[in-house]
Amino acid sequence: MRLGVDLGGTKIEAIALDDGGATLTRRRVATPGGDYAATLSAVDELIKTIENDLSRKGSVGIGCPGALSPRTGLIKNANSTVLNGKALDKDLSRILNRPVRLENDANCFALSEAIDGAGRHEKLVFGIILGTGVGGGLVIDKAVIRGRNKLTGEWGHNLLPWPRHTEWPGPQCYCGKTGCIETFLSGSGLSRDYEGLAGQDLSAEEISLAADAGDSKALECLVRYQDRLARGLASMINIVDPDAIILGGGLSNSENLYDDLIANIERYVFSDAIDTKIYRAVHGDSSGVRGVAWLWPKDMSEQR
């Protein structure tokens, strides 16, 4: 049995998969905001509850924002900043009393969709999460590509390509720079854009629903959002040229997001046309946690 835990900024979700990838059970709880010790305890409680319910123990994979620094062995670059500078893998391994495999949450999302999701028939898959942040993961032949500095796929912390004069220098990002793609395409970025236009503070989900219902100001924001998304993805296609791009996260559920997205991307790509496939994640908001569970191979998934 494989256990996967997706440690998000607002929720912690755990899943148990059998060796064939079928879901045995899922549970989720709210993430304790800004409290590292409480976060560790919440993960421990989720794992114990699932294993007690199923009367089995399993391997544990953890997906989280950011990555383990090759230099320090501590978490870096997490938008859930309470994790930064912490030995998350070692702390959880100690609490759970077993080895733990830890991976960037966007890498796990991309892996899940490449193994048995929307990108299962593609060789080179770029998966992105449009949510609290805009993480990305690159998978080639069903294997995650991490890079020398554990930075592969971090498209969100590059400058928004071809910025308009109204987008320069751009909002301040938690990473210390301004104008990052993430500051425009995250849920909070869309909310800020709508508030500036309509004078109303709505969540990204509420804006998406309003646009689907025909709200003109919400639609205007989503048109602008799609153009910014197209510019960001065009720059990735210019560099990586993936077979498929898989969209996940809450904002990927907006029907308006997909209308003319390919045509919009083509305006910016260094080519006369593109054949890149754009898919919505098959496994929805479970893609990340499923990918975490796949971090352990089948023959190592049972813990005695």
CATH class assignment of the largest domain = Alpha Beta
The rough form would be described as globular
> How many helix segments?
9
The percentage of residues in β strands lies in: 15-25%
Question: What structural category do the secondary elements indicate?
Answer: alpha/beta
Alpha-carbon distance between the termini?
A: 11 Å
| Helix content, binned percent | 25-40%
Mean pLDDT: 92
Q: The CATH topology of the largest domain, please? A: Nucleotidyltransferase, domain 5
In the predicted model, the low-confidence regions spanning at least 5 consecutive residues are 299-304
Q: What does the main sheet amount to?
A: 5 strands, mixed
* The CATH homology group name of the largest domain: ATPase, nucleotide binding domain
Describe what this molecule looks like in 3D:
The chain is built from nine helices and twelve strands. It has 304 residues and is an alpha/beta fold. It folds into two domains: 2-105 and 293-300, 2-Layer Sandwich (Nucleotidyltransferase, domain 5); 118-281, Nucleotidyltransferase, domain 5. Strand 1 (2-7) and strand 2 form a beta hairpin. The protein starts with a strand and ends in an 11-residue tail after the last helix. The relative contact order is 0.16.
